[in-house]
Amino acid sequence: MEILEVSAPGKIILHGEHSVMYGKTALAVSLGVRSTVVLRQQEPTGCPVVHVIFPNIDLDELLPLKPIAEIFPGEPVRVDHEDYINKINNLLCRIRPNFEELKDTQKNSLRALLYALIGIFGTTNLDITDFTIQLSTDLTVGAGTGSSASFATCLCGVFVKLVQLKTTGEILDFSEDEKKLVSGWAFNCERIMHGAPSGIDNTTCTFGALVSFKKGQVPVLRPSPELRVLLVDSGVTRETSRLTAAVAELRQCYSSAVGHIMEAMDNVALTAEQLLQKLVQPESEEEVHAAYKHLHELWEMNHCLLASLGVSHPALETIRAIAHEHGLACKLTGAGGGGNAIVLVPPHTQETTVTSLKTTLVSRGYKVADTIVGGPGVIINYKTQL
């Protein structure tokens, strides 16, 4: 049995939350917490199926492959997105009874699966046989950590590598061109999930490291050091649309004041970007210490600027106060109003300090992941089993 295993990171926003909506710079980084999609090719049967196992959204489905293969283009085509989605919807309603009664996350996951399968594998004219596709993830759905983009990147990556396996008989690491292909298809899958994505999530999940972007512009890839962080889940659900609407209303009432806050956030993001570039290849230990000191200050500034826009939350302030007691910088990430906070852990931090902080946070009921940001993007692992 041949097994393809593709994993991709989540993502977080380091700087530029909300201000990015008004033309300011934002920085996103890959998150050490990852999703994995495993594709197992099975022995061919007379009625080939794909077994879909996505336990994090309670999805376990057997879909017949023959009617899916009937709408394979068989050659490379430029996809009309809406027409493509309509064909997939009609197909799913035909091959999966009561498809419309599934939850939105389940329906969109199946749509994305067929979108990637038909669009990537279905244009090659290769034979398709029985396979199982299984998702596992440590990312929380809807928490602002790029769970859907990480999933989409894994899906598209695994089909790109399935094509490679069937055409060359071998599996290599993702090339830059393959990553561009994966990111492009993942963006289209993100359109299924979110309607009008910015492109930042799929770019970060595919390429990893650091991504700088402005609204309406192509995201720019930057090298990044790997920073140790604590990702702290406040346990408070948030509504991104409500928070962005509240910021827009505040801006309308106090355009000058909010404009200055947005300018300050832009300056924070640009300064942080310069510091992170220095940390990629630091010239001395003193430079490392100085850079982390400045990053600490920028994280504190960024959080306070966001709080002044009304997008913090008592739980986030509690997490930040606990981190401050341990001498570490903490800021909200994403839309705010709950969700996650991130704590910067400089390399010179005593491990007893980190342990004490994690213990205190967990005792208060918060979930804590000790991880890195700025690490690798999509990766492949290939193996065979008898």
Automatic annotation (TrEMBL):
This is Mevalonate kinase. It catalyses: (R)-mevalonate + ATP = (R)-5-phosphomevalonate + ADP + H(+). It is an enzyme of class 2 (transferase). Its EC number is 2.7.1.36. Residues 293-350 form the GHMP kinase C-terminal domain. Pathway: Isoprenoid biosynthesis; isopentenyl diphosphate biosynthesis via mevalonate pathway; isopentenyl diphosphate from (R)-mevalonate: step 1/3. The keyword Lipid metabolism applies. One of its GO terms (molecular function) is ATP binding. Pfam families: GHMP_kinases_C (PF08544), GHMP_kinases_N (PF00288). GO terms for cellular component: cytosol. It comes from Papilio xuthus (Asian swallowtail butterfly).
